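Consider a protein example.
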Amino acid sequence: MTVEARFCPRCGAGLRAKPPTTCAACGYALFVNARPTANLIVHDGHRFLALKRAMEPRAGLWETPGGFCDGWEDPATAAVREGREELGVEVTLGEFVGMYVGSYDYQGERLPVLDCFFLATLDGAQVRLDPRESADLAWFDLERPPPLAFETMDRALSDAASRLGR
């Protein structure tokens, strides 16, 4: 199910149309905006680090480290935080790769997301996965990734490979 508000979040009146719309009762303008995420393409020049998802959605598929930005959190700050949380190490943030509109299934809804990807390198420490989030890790060739959990990751990896001269 896609996110579609049927009632005004301010006054509770029924809405005449799906967002973007304006509540006829109180004038509140309602939009469905993409939620920002911050993602890392941890690389060693020709390979990237992928994590196997341990939880839904899309458990068992490979992904790049990342997650949702907290309210008012800059995506670059969120990317470093996500690296620390998911990999258990500090990462060195590199070049911004790009932003890609995608979707994320959560609580029975399909949410729009704006996935922000950054190149990154490890600080040399041993990666310690959070077992609640990741079941395994592996290094893959940037030009031959495995099936990935989210379509934006394929586009970002392709752009990253181009930037890294692959």
